[in-house]
């Protein structure tokens, strides 16, 4: 039985020299062909290894997350590592979000799986157990295409941070010679984008359209297409299309940018063609969920809006970290900003305005419903209590570690979870959901052709796409009207992303790709001072909570210095670092 070529390559003893992360060996137990054949469970278990390298989502930087380095929120604790972004205390030597090693580890594990299964045929079962043979062949092939998707995912995580990175398409062997590392260089940004989209196309061709409950959390055709769409959207954006750019590592150096927007819109449409506003089916498994609040706490079921997610299991860590310090052993944590709260429109569709005395007197009345579903607001009910966030209230300053901004996080949190008795809730982290794809499509279509353009290829306009999200059940915000200029519509799309996708780790990357880091990642982070003047009567005064530091070089992350050194300088550092 010869199912594997050179299976001994998977038995690699520890090497004292620390190689580059995309070469460093994984330590696998030696398996003979007979052992692989007799122990099918080894294949699906090895398949899970790269899945473990996917982003954690919740509190993935210490006890904070990337929203706390944007104008979405502020962490209540000054000593959290995420604050290094806000104070400008990060570099190629120390980066709170240094994921270089993690993503290359995932790529390496995916390549390992592909090498391991490259010549597996399960031929001995073809006659002796045809049912088992068919199952093993089907799943082995499916898992191999999942690896294509995962490699594309990890590469996207790298290029959105660093620009072009080394493209390691197969498992590389390291022989202990430091000079072996010096042949590895960064590929151009364009080459990386092309590689990611090609891997997505391959995966989408063979992965199942929809994921059944038993395989919830696995890659699907929809996941591959959604990743392709997001990659092409980013690739068409300002950051990677600077006029006069001559550095192939940091972006495009020519070509047709409008075509890039069209390509992004086309990729989004491929996902939207798998969605429905009626009854979901085997070929159209996606639909906007009817309950925006519940959407983020439905981990244990197949959710029609979720395209790809990570199942986190039972926990109360997120609640412990983010419940108000005045409630049930909460420690506060992520505090939504006034900047974010102000972005939610009035229920009539007009902007909120502090200079309007009616708005200022009762700032949470008659607002976009998503505000109250995302943020705990003063004097509202939450966790079976009233959120007394005013000065002197049991959830407000000067209570130690009370919110700095006047708000607490609601999105993702399970209400009434008694963490004092260690009650748990099931968690998931959503990587792709249908609403984002609608908004990606709206942005790409507007940039390519304007907000109201339709033709035989694109029968849905950018305006209809954004209004589909705004009009979802339970939100029902007024439609954006016909006739806006592309510039005016761009502002509407960007604000819609801000509120619909709040705390989903989009704002941080949107700011960079739109070249808005100076105001979104730097500048003044706002909060509100709340004074109780009579029962159920308050004054609200906006305030600056923190002034943050941002420099243009931060548009791209620095390559970790250790990687530059190990490559002998062949891995070129990003500009300014």
List keywords for this structure.
577 residues; two-stranded antiparallel ribbon; two-stranded antiparallel sheet; disordered N terminus; globular; Serine Threonine Protein Phosphatase 5, Tetratricopeptide repeat; single chain; 19 helices; 10 strands; alpha+beta
Description:
It is a single chain. With 577 residues, the protein is α+β, with helices and mostly antiparallel strands. The chain has helices spanning 33-38, 42-51, 83-87, 100-116, 125-128, 130-162, 189-206, 221-236, 257-272, 317-322, 338-343, 357-361, 369-374, 434-449, 462-470, 486-500, 507-513, 517-520, 561-566, and strands at 73-75, 306-315, 334-336, 375-376, 381-382, 385-386, 408-409, 425-433, 523-534, 537-548. Helix content is 36%, strand content 10%. Helix 6 packs parallel to helix 8, helix 14 packs antiparallel against helix 15 (462-470) and helix 14 runs antiparallel to helix 16. Residues 1-19 and 24-30 have low confidence and may be disordered.
Summarize the structure.
Helices cover 36% and strands 10% of the residues. With 577 residues, the protein is α+β, with helices and mostly antiparallel strands.
Secondary-structure map:
Layout: H1 33-38, H2 42-51, E1 73-75, H3 83-87, H4 100-116, H5 125-128, H6 130-162, H7 189-206, H8 221-236, H9 257-272, E2 306-315, H10 317-322, E3 334-336, H11 338-343, H12 357-361, H13 369-374, E4 375-376, E5 381-382, E6 385-386, E7 408-409, E8 425-433, H14 434-449, H15 462-470, H16 486-500, H17 507-513, H18 517-520, E9 523-534, E10 537-548, H19 561-566
Antiparallel strand pairs: 1-3, 2-8, 4-7, 5-6, 9-10
